[in-house]
Amino acid sequence: MKIIDVSHHNGNIDWQTVKGNVDGVILHCGYGQDLEKKDDPRFREWATECTILGIPFGVYLYSYAKSVDRIEGEAKHTLRLIKGYNLSLPVFFDSEEPGTESVAQACALKYMEIIKAAGYTVGIYASESWYKSYMSGIKDCPLWIAKYGINDGQPHVKPSIDGMWGWQYTSTGTVPGIEAGSLDISECYSNVTSTPQNAAPSPTLVTPVPTPDESWKGDKSIYLENDYVESWQHAMNVGFDLEGADRLSCDRKWGRDSQAFASAHNLWSGQIHNCPTAIRWLRTMLREVYGFNKLDDIGEWTDYLTECVKVFQRNRGLTVDGIVGKITTYWLLSGEKK
Predict the structure, then answer these.
(1) Which of 319, 321, 315, 320 shows the shortest CA–CA distance to 334?
(2) What is the dihedral of CA 274, 277, 281, 287, to 10 degrees?
(3) pLDDT surpassing 70 at residue 53
(4) What is the pLDDT of residue 155?
(5) Residue ranges of the domains in the chain?
(6) Cβ neighbours of residue 143 under 8 Å, at least 6 residues apart?
(7) What angle do CA 36, 40, 42 make, to 5 degrees?
(8) What is the 3-class SS of 69-107, one letter each residue?
(9) What tens digit of pLDDT does each residue of 133-149 get?
(10) What is the full DSSP assignment across 190-202?
(11) Please, what is the end-to-end C-alpha distance for the chain in angstroms?
(12) What is the pLDDT of residues 185-234, one digit of tens each?
């Protein structure tokens, strides 16, 4: 059976179209400790849509825990988000963060203990090599194992692990209804049913009420509102000599207008417009927020700045081109360290 897993990075999703092309979905609910800023911003919206449309779904939480005493917070995070939803598929502990290898198995066991006690079916997600190296002592739970091979969107060599719940065989798949150019797809070997695996009540469905126009937010999956955005808006206004109606509002909101500006005005070594203030902003962000301590405050583009941008992109799984466009700018403004 065909299962997909999605997070807000997959962009907008037409769930009615997706429904006819998959057997179930694993939704990213969040990562790390129980803080609202660590929630996946699309989780509740998508969980409710799957509920309404009858699409079987489960969830996964990306773990950052480097000690077992951090697991309670991650388990509470998961339980807060899934409360009120009937999950037809398991809750998965996503173990892949560098630096957690030595405690991966112990953390997973503690997480599963807490989630299982709350009434949910729970398992682990890991690559084949990670599981065999750090978690092979875990057997009696749903094992969702990743192995891509040539990663061309099709299944090839199956992981050599007995009793798998599912095999994530690609990160470059496509499914009608999902605009992202690449998608995680898995084969599931367990029956997918609409029978809930936990005793929590279904969310109360009410007649939808008109929602306010939020088109000004642009792509909501990358919408931000913080002080970093305001500093970027100011720097772009000065750096690109924006006047009158062309000026960005310094409103702290990374919405439609700011996103469009970032798409049309890239910062890179080959840019034509001389904008030292914008480049100085980039250097300051990379140095003071993300630890590129050798960058100074000059308003010039250098080969070393290009390399710093590429490292920043590589660490976040972005296209590594040294060009600060819309998506790289979003990650700069997010303040999220990797």
Answers:
(1) 315
(2) 90
(3) yes
(4) 94
(5) 2-188, 215-334
(6) 123, 124, 131, 161, 163, 164, 165
(7) 115
(8) HHHHHHHHHHHHHHCCCCCCCCEEEECCCCCCHHHHHHH
(9) 999 999 999 999 999 99
(10) S---SS-SS-PPP
(11) 34
(12) 999 998 654 445 554 444 444 455 566 788 888 888 899 999 999 999 99
Q: Strand, coil or helix: what is 174?
A: coil
Q: What is the C-alpha to C-alpha distance for residues 115 and 121, in angstroms, rounded to an integer?
A: 8
CATH number of 2-188: 3.20.20.80
Contact 132, 142 (CB under 8 A): no
What does the pLDDT look like over 263-276, one tens digit per residue? 999 999 988 777 89
3-state secondary structure of 66: coil
Q: In whole angstroms, how far apart are CA 197 and each of 74, 89, 121, 138?
A: 21, 7, 6, 21
Q: How far apart are CA 242 and CA 190, in angstroms?
A: 57
Enter the tokens of residue 109.
Answer: 């066991």
37: helix, coil or strand? helix
Residue 324's beta-bridge partner residues?
Answer: 267
The DSSP symbol for 136 reads: T
* Residue 26 vs residues 53, 102, 230, 235: alpha-carbon distances, Å: 15, 26, 35, 40
Beta-sheet strands, E only, within the chain = 2-6, 24-31, 57-62, 91-94, 122-127, 143-146, 166-173, 183-188, 224-225, 253-254
